[in-house]
Amino acid sequence: MSTSSTLSPPAVLAWRDYDASACALPGMFLGELALPGPLEGESERLWQLGARRVRLPATVDLAAAADPGRAAGAVAALSLVRDLTARAVLVEWDLRLPPPAADAWQVLSHLQPPRHIEGPAGADEALSGWRQGHYLCKCLWRKGPGFVQIRDRRWGELRRFTADEPHYEETIERLAYGAPADSVPADVLDDFRSEKLVLDVGPLAWWLPYRISRWLQEPMTI
Questions:
Q1: Separation CA 67–CA 204 (nearest Å)
Q2: How confident is the model at residue 3 (pLDDT cuts 50, 70, 90)?
Q3: Is 152 helix (H, G, I), strand (E, B) or coil?
Q4: Rounded to whole angstroms, how far apart are CA atoms 116 and 118?
Q5: Phi, psi torsion values for 215, nearest 5 degrees
Q6: Torsions phi, psi of 59, nearest 5?
Q7: Could you read off the pLDDT of 5-27 as tens digits, one per residue?
Q8: If 0-12 CB within 10 Å is exposed, 13-18 middle and 19+ buried, where does residue 93 land?
Q9: Is the pLDDT of residue 182 over 70?
Q10: What Rg do the C-alpha atoms of the chain give, in angstroms?
């Protein structure tokens, strides 16, 4: 189990169906659900409660990540979006990026697209591209016997990253829900950064790929 440096996100709103019209029917609204933690178990708990549509109440703010508390909150929210995306749950969330970061959305483009992007110029075009190009399994990692492998299609072509050294897997576990960048091996973190597999959010480094929970087709074809 990873050691998280994040906070638990605030309560979310949840429904039993993906479709907005179906969610309006009696009995489909699960209400406001608290997330008491641990964070790595929250997507499973929401799934078991029947949540198929989840709304985050606050904007995920990466423009204020210099503040450690806000960085931790942003990473917690992103972790929930990532884990629910892996379960093919429809996530309604909003994102704020730093103004100069017009293309920063692409590193997050394997996640369920947000409803709105605030901050950089060209945000509407970025959101349109995100929505048009999104599909499940776009950037994932899996663990095999003695190795870990990442398969990444965020940039249009398939990129593979495979490591058989145990400290790579250990570092992934550490980064899964955010960890101080200086708390993990620098060589491994540099490798992950060069492949854009981690996101630096203030003092935290956060692991971007997800472990898939629902396959849309046979795993060997992904």
A1: 11
A2: very low
A3: strand
A4: 7
A5: -80, 135
A6: -65, 135
A7: 556 677 999 999 999 999 999 99
A8: buried
A9: yes
A10: 17
